[in-house]
Amino acid sequence: MKSGGVERGAIEIAQALIDRGDRALIASRGGRMVAQFRRIGGEFHELDMATKSPIVMYRNVARLRTLIREEGVDIVHARSRAPAWSGYYAARAEGVPFVTTYHGVYNEDFPFKRHYNAIMARGAPTIAISEHVARIVQERHGLGPDQIEIIPRGADIRTFDEEAVSTERTLSLGNAWGVIEDSRPIVMLPGRLTGWKGQTTLIAAAAELLSRKKSLGEHLDCQFVLVGDDHGSGFQRKLEAQIAAAGLTGYFRLVGHCADMEAAYKLAAVVVSASTEPEAFGRVAVEAQAMGRPIIASAHGGSLETVEDQKTGYLYPPQDPKALAEVIDAALSLDPSARAHMGMAGRARVRSRFTVEAMQRSTLAVYDRIMEARR
Is the pLDDT of residue 106 over 90? Predict the structure, then answer.
């Protein structure tokens, strides 16, 4: 529970359960988000659920069975693969319904990987977080439409609202990042620092922009902010080396993990989601639109559902730095009227289709249907 959409989704559903008087338990190895979960009244049980060791996974079955019995658990809901294997057998042994949320487009580049991934399709039902994911589940695992519940992720429009973010919060974050004294507009890419999130593509696009501006005798009048950490993988050092080699020192800031993403989006002029592999859903695109910011996203996966090209943002061919440079330039060149119009269109799209409230309501409806069937 360090960071990420899977963890946030678990906490959002826990919040909805607690708000209506139910209990919410999470079994996990832990992380910085445990404190947030406990603050809302959640009950945390520390287990090494992230392990891929068959021995520990087998032991976790017994531990989860004990937890199910002692706490009177009604439904087991698994959100990632290793915990799902233990959760499935524990739930089956205790006669408790088992639900999964298929959060990712899992790779199948090793032998038996499809079998390992298939546990996420054993939920009754299996919740897919986008139409894109639903199609993959059907193609890979042979589930019928009646076995899949499509429930898109969403933004909390009560908090991801420009008017709800105070100037004090924005200034505090901006000062911490060192961007307040820098008047250049911010192009922001939020996401864990890892190969597939596209930070390297953005750096290459920035180098392309810098080269174009120099050839025209102009300056590159923007700064790039990468929000997120690498969880100790060392990937940040690779990015810093790429930035230096491209002559972009002074244009990029790597600011690490951010606990106040609403304020972060408010600081941004443009938000980028440059994933090189398809996003299963892509919260960044939805949250940026909720905040009224132009979003630039690679044209595959969930972004094709969440971003309306040229209306709420821009789509560009994945892993194409030149195309990304062009749309960044276009987004930064929007006049105030066009920017406001795009912001309004983005907010309207999110409010009508991609809210946390709708996701919570639909998920609780699944739980209620399961419990009613049991009764």
Answer: no
